[in-house]
Amino acid sequence: xxxxxxxxxxxxxxxxxxxxxxxxxxxxxxxxxxxxxxxxxxxxxxxxxxxxxxxxxxxxxxxxxxxxxxxxxxxxxxxxxxxxxxxxxxxxxxxxxxxxxxxxxxxxxxxxxxxxxxxxxxxxxxxxxxxxxxxxxxxxxxxxxxxxxxxxxxxxxxxxxxxxxxxxxxxxxxxxxxxxxxxxxxxxxxxxxxxxxxxxxxxxxxxxxxxxxxxxxxxxxxxxxxxxxxxxx
Length: 233
What we know:
This protein is an alpha+beta fold. The protein has two domains: 7-83, lambda repressor-like DNA-binding domains (434 Repressor (Amino-terminal Domain), Orthogonal Bundle); 88-230, Ribbon (Umud Fragment, subunit A). Helices cover 24% and strands 29% of the residues. The protein contains six helices and ten strands, in the order ααααααββββββββββ. The chain has helices at 7-20, 25-31, 42-49, 58-68, 72-78, 85-93; strands at residues 97-98, 104-114, 127-132, 142-148, 162-166, 176-181, 185-194, 197-201, 210-213, 220-230. Strands 1, 2, 3, 4, 5, 6, 7, 8, 9 and 10 form a ten-stranded mixed beta sheet that branches. Helix 2 (25-31) crosses helix 3 (42-49) and helix 4 packs across helix 5 (72-78). The protein is elongated, with a radius of gyration of 19 Å. It starts with 6 loop residues before the first helix and ends with a strand. The relative contact order is 0.13. This is HTH cro/C1-type domain-containing protein.
């Protein structure tokens, strides 16, 4: 379990997320309401941000995440309940270790990615794979993932292939990305993003597209864009 922070630090982090989204206290309060739970009042939210209340229990933390429009695991992680996949990606990158020549560099393998409907997003760093320096930019922007499953065989991506991922912010519709769903499930899929939806499409016709609409879009974290794959025989 990740190390817990104190209530003042937690409040500062929550306020930082709210400020990044330019949400008012009244707005996050309104957005925290769910079908089964009432809204978190602006006054209580303010007390949390000022560190004048204890860190809430998980159920309330999930409502706060809903109000902030971020995946629940991010807020739970801040409170020390679980580690986010986003953090795992960053922590597992480690140092870039160059090979003994000027042409290649070793990029860390940070875990596994499931090319299918289920599976753990990332595991611990498992080693390194080489890349030609001329083919990439800043090495720290890249990582390798091992694929599993058959959902992308139409693109020539098979179980056990190594997928080189470049961390991206901008999405180019139709390209293949490493996608984290609700902080847990990792998958390679073609991504199409519109104003109010994200569609994840496999290249194996046995798998139906997955469509995330409205607030469900907050469950999606784009880890990066697929640059290349390679196979070891």
